[in-house]
Amino acid sequence: MPDESRGYYTGWLQTSPTLGIVVSLAVIIATRTYFGNQVFDDWAWRVPFLVSFLLVAIAIYIRLQLQETPIFQEIKAKGQMTRNPWKEAFLSSNIKYVGIACIVLIGQGVVWYSGQFWALYFLQQVSKVDALSSSYIVGAALLIATPSLIFFGWLSDQIGRKPVILGGMLLAAITYYPLYLWLGTVTQPGNINYPISVFIIFILVCYVGMVYGPVGAFLAEYFPARIRYTSVSVPYHIGNGWGGGLVPFITTAAFASTGSIGYALIYPIGSRSVLRARPLPDAGDSQDQHLATDTA
After folding, report:
1. Which positions ≥6 away from 267 have C-beta within 8 Å?
2. 154/253 Cα distance (integer angstroms)
3. Which residues have C-beta within 8 Å of that of residue 43, sequence separation ≥ 6?
4. Torsions phi, psi of 187, nearest 5?
5. Whole-angstrom Cα distance, residue 169 to residue 208?
6. pLDDT tens digits, residue range 36-63?
7. CATH assignment at residue 271
8. Region label for 259, one of left (φ > 0), alpha (ψ between -120 and 50) or beta (otherwise)
9. Which of 126, 141, 129, 137 is nearest to 263 (CA)?
10. How many domains does one find in the chain?
11. What is the pLDDT of residue 73?
């Protein structure tokens, strides 16, 4: 892909997790509708897990068809492969870039989980919206907002990764509290405003688009190809597995113990505010913007 369009093309790839949630919600809706809520709660909740085996098989097939990138193949042909990628990635000056990437990915992970998973939890546990209605609302919002990942990936090609990613973090930190308060007022039991509910979650998912759409291009530009996979794997899984993965646990525990939306949002808002204050180099500041060190 051309360097100047890397954000746009990787933005398409970044849509897959959000679309995966949409598919999972569709399967849950279909299963609940077919079997009924009582049967679903008794045993039919296992059906979506069985269906997922088909998706795993498709994913394995797709992965087996993938080829190495031209840059990696060129490095391999020239004999420029590293003998110890772990050492070069984490026991050299590269560790500084790994650390910065961890900071960026924690912020991205928190936005990703806060705007999608916690929105569903909020509807079901805070507003007490039934499972089917909440799935319809979140599924529709995610589907409508999915193109934002492509758009903001493209926008990062035009104005840089930094303003788009940090802009998403800043907007999320500023607006999460009023948006969730608003969502609570329009999803009262027996009086749900479906269009406004979908619109609010659409905004939350657009923040996901801002931070997650460009991040694939950001990481590709940030590390040399010979150690990219090793360097990216640690911050990506720390950011999404720990930073983002803790969002449902912390927000749920905070709300259960206090009954306050404000306390529940301290972690999502606070982590974003701290990360927003940290320096984030743009593609032009990275150690390998156009991969010159790989091909020289």
Report:
1. 110, 246, 247, 250, 251, 254
2. 37
3. none
4. -125, 40
5. 9
6. 989 999 999 999 999 889 888 988 998 8
7. 1.20.1250.20
8. left
9. 126
10. 1
11. 76
Other CB atoms within a 10 A radius of the CB of residue 202 amount to: 17
In whole angstroms, what is the distance from residue 95 CA to residue 78 CA?
A: 25
pLDDT at residue 88 tops 90: no
Domain with 29, as residue range(s), is 3-295
- How do residues 194-203 score in pLDDT, each as one tens digit? 999 999 999 9
Any idea what DSSP says for residue 82?
Answer: -
pLDDT at 280: 58
CA distance 122 to 102: 28
Global pTM reads 0.87
- Length reported for the chain: 296
Helices (H), the chain: 6-35, 37-39, 46-65, 70-77, 85-90, 94-121, 131-145, 147-159, 161-185, 194-212, 215-222, 228-237, 246-258, 261-264, 266-277, 292-295
115: tokens are 């705007």
